[in-house]
């Protein structure tokens, strides 16, 4: 009886351990998958609103199996740090500006920094939503990154503490840029000195005179309160600022296939939303800048914009070897752009 009792006790202990393990596994399985989505702009910008919209859609479509935690305004990482954080798995999702991929080794993305490359959103979307855009996103695979979508912010305006009507007005100015060889060449072609700086540091740099001005869509300019420390905003529409929504490749590939499909569906809807509100948000922000009375808004005359374009022809001519001549020509063909008209 003693032996039987000991065996019964062992069996009981084994069953109890097995049940506990099963319950623990079930409890673990019920835990939602967390996606940390970090970005560097304010909540009330096109990207900020689109990130929140994606969060809602992702959680609805997966019925709570995924929880998206959105961290705006560089709460987790500055824009110089966030790509490394993604590759290390510290965050799962980002939407960095397209200029950020050049320093990562994907120089082709700097093609979007070329001045006056796109006349309007229609021309832009023929590139980002077509084969060219998908080919660019695919180039991120080798970096441990999956590219999911392109999101618009909008067309950029110049700002400074002096009016900038002609290229000669740029001489001697220090202007903040993102880390991009194309943007560096753009500012030098206009006669300014480019200063690479994290987005989160720009307001203070403008306030203290470390830099004299910068370039931004109106939504970023207003939500970061740059209108409080810049006297002039010049409506140049000289360049495009957009984002690539990206995810850590290992994390993405380890997701259950049904969850991955639901997230892709949510991203498609969020992308339509992001791109639909971009122009509206920038228009609203520009009106708010005007109403503030703190920044004078300058509309370039046709002959002034022509002078800007003429000064910037060289940037296109010199950037082919960096971004890829074939890529550049394919974008020209898709959009009907003719650099000779700059």
Automatic annotation (TrEMBL):
<feature type="signal peptide">
    <location>
        <begin position="1"/>
        <end position="29"/>
    </location>
</feature>
<dbReference type="InterPro" id="IPR004682">
    <property type="entry name" value="TRAP_DctP"/>
</dbReference>
<keyword id="KW-0813">Transport</keyword>
<dbReference type="GO" id="GO:0015740">
    <property type="term" value="P:C4-dicarboxylate transport"/>
</dbReference>
<dbReference type="InterPro" id="IPR018389">
    <property type="entry name" value="DctP_fam"/>
</dbReference>
<dbReference type="Pfam" id="PF03480">
    <property type="entry name" value="DctP"/>
</dbReference>
<dbReference type="GO" id="GO:0055085">
    <property type="term" value="P:transmembrane transport"/>
</dbReference>
<keyword id="KW-0732">Signal</keyword>
<comment type="similarity">
    <text>Belongs to the bacterial solute-binding protein 7 family.</text>
</comment>
<protein>
    <submittedName>
        <fullName>C4-dicarboxylate-binding periplasmic protein DctP</fullName>
    </submittedName>
</protein>
<dbReference type="InterPro" id="IPR038404">
    <property type="entry name" value="TRAP_DctP_sf"/>
</dbReference>
<dbReference type="GO" id="GO:0030288">
    <property type="term" value="C:outer membrane-bounded periplasmic space"/>
</dbReference>
């Amino acid at each position: 009886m003693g032996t039987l009792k000991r065996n019964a006790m062992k069996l009981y202990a084994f069953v109890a351990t097995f049940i506990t393990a099963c319950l623990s596994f079930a409890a673990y399985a019920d835990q939602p998958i967390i996606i940390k989505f970090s970005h560097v702009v304010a909540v009330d910008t096109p990207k900020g609103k689109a990130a929140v919209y994606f969060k809602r859609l992702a959680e609805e479509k997966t019925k709570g199996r995924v929880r998206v935690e959105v961290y705006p305004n560089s709460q987790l990482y500055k824009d110089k740090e966030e790509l490394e954080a993604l590759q290390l798995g510290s965050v799962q999702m980002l939407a960095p500006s397209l200029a950020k991929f050049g320093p990562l080794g994907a120089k082709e993305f700097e093609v979007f920094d070329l001045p006056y490359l796109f006349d309007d959103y229609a021309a832009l979307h023929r590139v980002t939503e077509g084969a060219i855009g998908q080919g660019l996103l695919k180039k991120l695979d080798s970096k441990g990154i999956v590219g999911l979508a392109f999101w618009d912010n909008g067309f950029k305006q110049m700002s400074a503490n002096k009016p900038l009507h002609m290229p000669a007005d740029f001489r001697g100015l220090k202007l903040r840029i993102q880390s991009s060889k194309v943007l560096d060449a753009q500012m030098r072609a206009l006669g300014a000195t480019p200063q690479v700086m994290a987005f989160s540091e720009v307001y203070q740099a403008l306030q203290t005179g470390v830099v004299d001005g910068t370039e931004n869509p109106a939504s970023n300019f207003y939500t970061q309160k740059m209108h409080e420390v810049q006297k002039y905003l010049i409506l140049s529409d000289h360049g495009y600022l957009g984002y690539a929504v990206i995810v850590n490749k290992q994390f993405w590939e380890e997701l259950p296939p049904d969850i991955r499909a639901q997230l892709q569906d949510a991203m498609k809807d969020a992308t339509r939303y992001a791109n639909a509100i971009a122009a509206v948000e920038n228009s609203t922000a520009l009106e708010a800048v005007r109403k503030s009375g703190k920044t004078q808004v300058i509309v370039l005359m046709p002959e002034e914009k022509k002078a800007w374009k003429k000064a910037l022809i060289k940037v296109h001519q010199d950037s082919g070897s960096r971004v890829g001549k074939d890529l550049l020509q394919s974008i020209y063909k898709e959009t009907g752009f003719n650099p000779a008209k700059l």
